[in-house]
Amino acid sequence: VEEESLERMGTGLKELDLVLGGGLVPGSLTLIGGEPGVGKSTLVLEVSRYLTQANKKVLYISGEESPSQIRMRAERMGFRSSNLLLTSETYAENISAMIEGARPTAVFVDSIQTIAREALPNQAGTVTQLRECTQILLETAKRSGIPILMTGHITKEGTIAGPKILEHLVDTVL
């Protein structure tokens, strides 16, 4: 078996790069879990700032805030960039098509619990929706070679909200 060497993409955050083994892996799906208000969205926006300042295109998908809210937060953090593509799209199939069309350097999904498959009757955040949407994002990451980092909520017990399979589908859980 030949070992494949993948060039990792630095995030601009030394500690995050350390726990990621040097940065984001092309084609990987990473899940960052945490309680509401702990700073998951801010962390993702900080990585977006670093990448866009390095002239890399970032697709930021938020089911929790509107693009104008994210842009205002970014401006408060001191950055504005035409390389930051913002959307509040929440259908997994449409997100996959956007990734394939825009070909960004990295994709951030905030949060997986807000994403749904249009064809399924269940609400976003249900076990079926989480499993199906994570699978679509995983396939998109692998096919495109673009790293996708998604945030996820945790329960009162401290576990990722949703089915245990969610943690098994992704490449990395933080």
From TrEMBL:
Domain annotation RecA family profile: ranges: 5-154
Highest taxon above the source species: Bacteria
GO cellular component: cytosol
Gene Ontology terms: biological process: recombinational repair
InterPro entries on file: AAA+_ATPase, P-loop_NTPase, RecA_ATP-bd
Signal peptide from the UniProt entry: none
GO molecular function: ATP binding; ATP-dependent DNA damage sensor activity; DNA binding
Protein's name in the database: AAA family ATPase
Natural source organism: Leptospira interrogans serovar Pomona
